[in-house]
Structure formats: structure tokens, C-alpha cells
Amino acid sequence: MAENTIRKVATRESYGNALKELAEEFPDLVVLDADLAAATKTSIFRKAYPDRHIDCGIAEANMMGIAAGLSLVGKIPFVSSFAMFAAGRAFEQVRNSIGYPHLNVKIGATHAGITVGEDGATHQCNEDIALMRTIPGMVVMCPADDVEAKAAVRAALEYQGPVYIRFGRAAVPVINDRPDYKFEIGKGSIVREGTDVTIVATGICVDSALGAAEKLAADGISAEVVSICTIKPLDEEIIINSAKKTGKVVTVEEHSVIGGLGSAVCDCLSANLPTKVKKLGMQDVFGESGSAAALVQKYGLDAEGVYKSVKEFL
Amino acid sequence: MNNLELQKHANEVRKGIVTAVHGAKAGHPGGSLSAADAFTFLYFEEMNIDPADPDKKDRDRFVLSKGHTAPGLYSTLANRGFFPVEDLKTLRHLGSYLQGHPCIHIPGVDMSSGSLGQGISAAVGIALGAKMNQESFRVYTLLGDGELEEGQVWEASMFAGHRKLDNLCVIVDNNNLQIDGPIDKVCSPYPIDKKFEAFNFHVVNVDAHDFDALRAAFQEARETKGMPTCIVLHSLKGKGVSFMENSIDWHGKAPNDEEYAVAMADLEKIGAELEKAGEA
Questions:
Q1: Residue (of A220, A228, A280) closest to A250 by Cα position
Q2: Is A72 at the interface with chain B, CB within 8 A?
Q3: How many CB pairs under 8 A join A and B?
Q4: Where are the domains of chain B?
Q5: Chain B interface includes A101 (CB < 8 A)
Q6: For B130, which residue in chain A has the nearest alpha carbon?
Q7: Beta bridge partners of residue A9, listed in sequence order
């Protein structure tokens, strides 16, 4: 497909649209925000359902507790803020007030990773997957595009229990727009088959992995690309089977290489099928200001960067 | 319920607190004892609850924001019939359902709590949800005075005042002592009443150990419309056990066997006096 025909949507936009589209079907759905509705895109829901949108002000810790309380009277709260504040600032509230009592609260965290861009390191959360993974019973998802983001929101509403979904600020190509697309919590998908190396990617990095696979193919290297939306519970089967076939695994995520997808894949493979793994992501560094595209390039998470890293690894 | 009966129940609640903490060899007797009369009033008179149906939909809700005083809540629930009083001896034991801090799976416990500042937010969320659902039950949450140092308390209070949650009653157990010392020496939250007023609460100051005063305060809370109410309990930490009264040492320590015997003798004596008063 030619570059200019690819539809691009920021997954935060998908999130806001999905909330609105699912509101009638899920009458208990309520949406909470902390003065960021315009940015998280819960404003789309607010415009249509003002009585079901609760602005908690700039107080994320309290917002998590409010959501917990709302769930105790049968509401299904979707709590929104930037990933930095939802998973970072309010970590302990999520752990103790939502995770420990295993309440039916969904966290829609936007502006995850370095593609926050110009705001810089203070707002670029590269730690949220790691933090949320450690909470017992927490489902952690990181959709790759518009289609997957909307499917993840629906799946979260249908699921009973706490869910964390990570969305991005920057517009990203729609890659899952096909009639046979199916979404299930805990299931990954092979988006490109290959035999020489497995690239496991999540979020916006699935697109980079596909681009890298294309470049590798030109060099005669057959890369299999596994798209993982649900980082917890991880689809171990799909990773083990692919690793069995290729013998080498590269992980790609817009997140720290400590505790995120790469760590989850290593946990899985070290216990089941010890395999050499190269983890691409933020290499234990903070981000910085810049455009999303420039940052993704600088930190080696675009197709070219992933391609180069895979070549070095092989 | 008449005051004498409430006093007798409160005394049994206190025995349960001391017994539970002694059995656990750990826990928080001081703040449990200071709030024992409030716990008793809530569960024996004020709240619409049913021990035979702990999850009934229209029940009033209670969140123990100062979750470390779980022995006070558990002893009250046990004495009210939610679970056997005998089970209090298993507090904090491996395998017991009576966890060190309140856990939502315990009969009668509406929310897990214990990390300070978080319980009030959950209570505010429940109160907001009740309003949205047009349900008429009330929501109570008990905080420690030291807990007021947590910023989240004020986030929650700002929200509750802003949303005019008049189905919410925040109770502060003002026994004036926290682990590191008197609250006004550590990091003073005083004036407590003025602070809650500034956050758009109706505030009632009350003697925590006077059931007439408690009754009047909770009635005032129920009758207050358009804003949440904060009841500031002026209490005595360790109330009822001579050597624990107004003592920081007994914030989070269990009595040994000798101390337990003295504590129970103190409470037996109070119990005997109450029996005598009943006969008179």
C-alpha cells in the first residue's frame, strides 16, 4: 500500500470514540478524567454523555479511589489521565484501592511513551507497563492501532476485573483493518510469518516491526512479526511456538526495556524455551523534548532502527 | 437503643479489640479503643445493616479509612453478629480471613483499606455512585487525625464538597496522637473543623465517648442537605484500658499476657459497673 493511502489515527482518539460508541450498550459505563479530557479524548464521550463524565480535577490519586467506590455500586468506571499520572503518580492507589480488592475498574491511560513528544521526559511515561504488570490480577494491554484500541476498550468492558490500557498521543497507521480481525484478551497474533527471527512488538512498535521485516526481506532475512496487545496475561504459546521456529527473538516497545514487553517475553522464554533475546525500547534512559517522529527515530524504534538492531543481532 | 445498652456493647467491643490484638501479638489497640464508641453507635444504632445479609443492596456503607484500627471494626462486626466473636483470636494469623487491615472479602467489610488517605476517596466514590443511581443509602468513613496529613484526604474532601455529597459522613477520630508523637508536634492538621468547613463541609465537634452527643451529631449529619458532614470525634486514645489511655506507646503494640490480664480486668470492672447501673 502506498504511504499516502494509509489511514492514521492516534489511539487516544480511538479510545474517546470507542467510549462514546459503547455507551449505549454498556449503560453502567462512566468516564473519569483529571482535567485532561481534551487531551485524553474523553471529551468525545463527555460531549455525548455529560452526566456520565466525571471530572475529578487535577487529583489522580483521589480519582482512582472515586473509581473504586463507583465500581462498588455497579458502575464500570473508565479512568483517564496521562500514563505518567495514572500508572505513575497513582500507582499505589491503583494497587491498593483497585488491584487488591480486584474491582471492576478500567484505566485508560493516554500519552504513553516517548511519542508524547515536545512535552519531554516529565510527561513521557516509559514505566507504566512495568508498574501495572506487577499488580496481581491486573490485565495490561497496549493496542497497536485504531482497530485494536477500540477492540481493547470493548474487551475491557466485557471483562470483569481491573484492566489497564495504554494509548498514544501521536497518530499511527491503521494496520489491523481487515475483515477477519479478531480480538481476545490474552491472545497475540502473527501479523507476518517468517522463519529466521521473531520480532515481538506491542503498541505503535508493531508498525515499526512490520516495516523492519519488509527491509529484512529485501536482505533475504525472513522475519516473523508477533503482535502482542495483551502484555498480561501474555500469550505464551504464540511466543514459544514462534521462538521454536526461528530460534531468535527481538522485542520492540515504546517503553523501558526494564519490566515491559521484553521482560515479559524473557520471563516466558527463560522458563519454557531458553532463547537469545534482544530487547529494543528505552535503554534505561529518560526521553527528551522533540517531535514524536524524531524521538522514535533517535531511540531506534522506527522501522529503520528496528531493522538495524535486528541485523546486528543476527 | 438506650445508652446503657450501647455502653455495654462498646465494652464488649473493647474486650474483643484487646483480645484480638493480644492473640495477634501485633496490631493497633489505641486507635481502635478511641473509636470503639463510634463503631458501636454506627453498627448498633445508626447504620442500616443486616448481619444476616451483609451485602444487601440498600445497606449503609462504611469504609474504615484508618484501616490500621481493623481490630475495632472486626470486634464491632463480630459483636453485631457478622461472624463469630471467637474468630477475633485469629486476627493476623496465617490463613485467617481477619487480615491485618480490612479486606473486602470479610463479611460486613465494604472496602479494603489501610493505606492512609485512600479509604475516604473510595467512600466519596460510593457516595457519588449512590447519587448517580438515585439510591438513598448513606456512606460513612472513619479517618484518623494523623491521617489528615495525607494529601489525598483533601483531594477527596474538595471533591465531596464540590459535588455536595450530603449522603456522605466523614468521621475524624481526633485522639491527638500519632506514631511519632502528638499530632500538633509532628505536623499539625489543626484546626480540623475549620479545614473541613473551608472544604464546604458541615462540621460537628463531639465528645467521642458520649452516646447522646454521638446520636445528636449523626442526626445532624443526616439532616444536613446540600453538603457533606464531618464529625470530629474528640476522643481518648486507648479509652477503657487504664495503661493504654492517652499513651503513644499503645498505638501499634500488643499487650503481653500480664498486660492482657490487666486490660481485661479493667474492662470487666467497667462491665460490672454497667450491669450494676442497669439494675439500679
A1: A280
A2: yes
A3: 99
A4: 3-279
A5: yes
A6: A73
A7: A172
Q: What is the pLDDT along chain B (280 residues), one digit of tens a residue?
A: 999 999 999 999 999 999 999 999 999 999 999 999 999 999 999 999 999 999 999 999 999 999 999 999 999 999 999 999 999 999 999 999 999 999 999 999 999 999 999 999 999 999 999 999 999 999 999 999 999 999 999 999 999 999 999 999 999 999 999 999 999 999 999 999 999 999 999 999 999 999 999 999 999 999 999 999 999 999 999 999 999 999 999 999 999 999 999 999 999 999 999 999 999 8
Query: B3-279 adopts what CATH topology?
Result: Rossmann fold (3.40.50)
CB A82 within 8 A of CB B135: no
Asked if residue A200 lies in contact with residue A294, where contact means CB atoms within 8 angstroms, the answer is: no
Q: Distance between CA atoms of B34 and B50, rounded to whole angstroms?
A: 25
Interface of A with B in 13-42 (CB under 8 A): 30
Chain B residues with a Cβ under 8 Å from any Cβ in chain A: 61, 103-104, 110-112, 114-115, 117-130, 132-133, 135, 151-152, 155-156, 158-159, 162
The CA-atom distances, in angstroms, between B250 and each of A196, A275, B13, B152 are 66, 55, 17, 26
Cβ of A69 and B132 within 8 Å? no
* Inter-chain touch A69–B127, beta carbons under 8 Å: yes
Cβ within 8 Å of B, A 212-231 = none
Our separate counts of H helices and E strands in chain B read 10, 7
ipTM: 0.97
Please tell me the distance in Å from A132's CA to the nearest CA on chain B: 18
User: Among A62, A69, A96, whose Cβ lies nearest the Cβ of B155?
Assistant: A62
**Interchain CB distance below 8 Å, B158 and A57:** yes
Distance between CA atoms of B44 and B80, rounded to whole angstroms? 7
What's the pTM? 0.97
DSSP for B168-229, written as a single string: EEEEEEE-SEETTEEHHHHS----HHHHHHHTT-EEEEEETT-HHHHHHHHHHHHH--SS-E
- Which of the residues of A are catalytic? 60
